[in-house]
Amino acid sequence: MPWIQIKLNATNQNAEPISDMLMEKTGALSVTFLDAKDTPVFEPLPGETRLWGDTDVLALYDAEIDTQLVIQQIQTSQLLADDFAYKIEQIEDKDWEREWMDNFHPMKFGERLWICPSWREIPDPNAVNVLLDPGLAFGTGTHPTTALCLQWLDSLNLSGKTVIDFGCGSGILAIAAIKLGAAKVIGIDIDPQALLASKDNAARNGVADKIEVYLPQNQPDNLVADVVVANILAGPLRELSPVIKSLIKPGGQLAMSGVLNTQAEDVANYYRDELSIDPIAEQEEWCRITGRKQD
């Protein structure tokens, strides 16, 4: 199926309203933001949509669309100047699903652990392999915060231990912990969809019997674990620090991520009263904070 793409030059002030208008008023099938260097916006920082001073807005349409009508609708929206710049392009028809799948490859974390899409051949059958397909809303290991947590789990001796994945999302960390030897993992998340994803992914990996998932209000009383991992965001890590600290057994270990290097020391300070904090690990401006709870 052929496609038409309309590219508009916008700013960080009007890109979002233009996007909403294109989707709601002109029949755009999708809208993408790119910066002046043609870099797509995929993963904004916490709490923001990362837009640049010169932001291109790319709208995709069915090739049968009346492009002049679309341009007139953009003009009447008054979101851009009367002489706004735009470009209309024909887009090559592709097997978009296949192209999307081709971008994901098995990834290694630490010494033993691989995260493998289901359609790829497992590189090392003797390694610790977690089968996880990319999704729209949950982690797959590609983000530095997830990678940092996976590397940390791989470095531990989890044999026979209980692990809590606080903010479990796809269940990637929970499943990795089980495959690395944990006897039991508890996943906690505020999103019921995340709990379903964690259970489904655990079943795909043959470890459904070793994972329990809960909404925070439904988790067992006096819940504690040998290892707690929380890959969420700096704000919740600060606000929920009393809750997270209470989940760690004396002598137990904690890893936190979803924290920028500008936030790491402040977040760590919320935990120093009960934990000895290790040197902070950093990858691509994101950080991992680890520590051990005092006996």
TrEMBL record:
<comment type="function">
    <text>Methylates ribosomal protein L11.</text>
</comment>
<feature type="binding site">
    <location>
        <position position="167"/>
    </location>
    <ligand>
        <name>S-adenosyl-L-methionine</name>
    </ligand>
</feature>
<dbReference type="GO" id="GO:0005840">
    <property type="term" value="C:ribosome"/>
</dbReference>
<dbReference type="InterPro" id="IPR050078">
    <property type="entry name" value="Ribosomal_L11_MeTrfase_PrmA"/>
</dbReference>
<protein>
    <recommendedName>
        <fullName>Ribosomal protein L11 methyltransferase</fullName>
        <ecNumber>2.1.1.-</ecNumber>
    </recommendedName>
</protein>
<dbReference type="InterPro" id="IPR004498">
    <property type="entry name" value="Ribosomal_PrmA_MeTrfase"/>
</dbReference>
<feature type="binding site">
    <location>
        <position position="189"/>
    </location>
    <ligand>
        <name>S-adenosyl-L-methionine</name>
    </ligand>
</feature>
<keyword id="KW-0687">Ribonucleoprotein</keyword>
<keyword id="KW-0489">Methyltransferase</keyword>
<keyword id="KW-0963">Cytoplasm</keyword>
<dbReference type="GO" id="GO:0032259">
    <property type="term" value="P:methylation"/>
</dbReference>
<dbReference type="Pfam" id="PF06325">
    <property type="entry name" value="PrmA"/>
</dbReference>
<feature type="binding site">
    <location>
        <position position="146"/>
    </location>
    <ligand>
        <name>S-adenosyl-L-methionine</name>
    </ligand>
</feature>
<dbReference type="GO" id="GO:0016279">
    <property type="term" value="F:protein-lysine N-methyltransferase activity"/>
</dbReference>
<keyword id="KW-0808">Transferase</keyword>
<comment type="similarity">
    <text>Belongs to the methyltransferase superfamily. PrmA family.</text>
</comment>
<dbReference type="InterPro" id="IPR029063">
    <property type="entry name" value="SAM-dependent_MTases_sf"/>
</dbReference>
<feature type="binding site">
    <location>
        <position position="231"/>
    </location>
    <ligand>
        <name>S-adenosyl-L-methionine</name>
    </ligand>
</feature>
<keyword id="KW-0949">S-adenosyl-L-methionine</keyword>
<dbReference type="GO" id="GO:0005829">
    <property type="term" value="C:cytosol"/>
</dbReference>
<keyword id="KW-0689">Ribosomal protein</keyword>
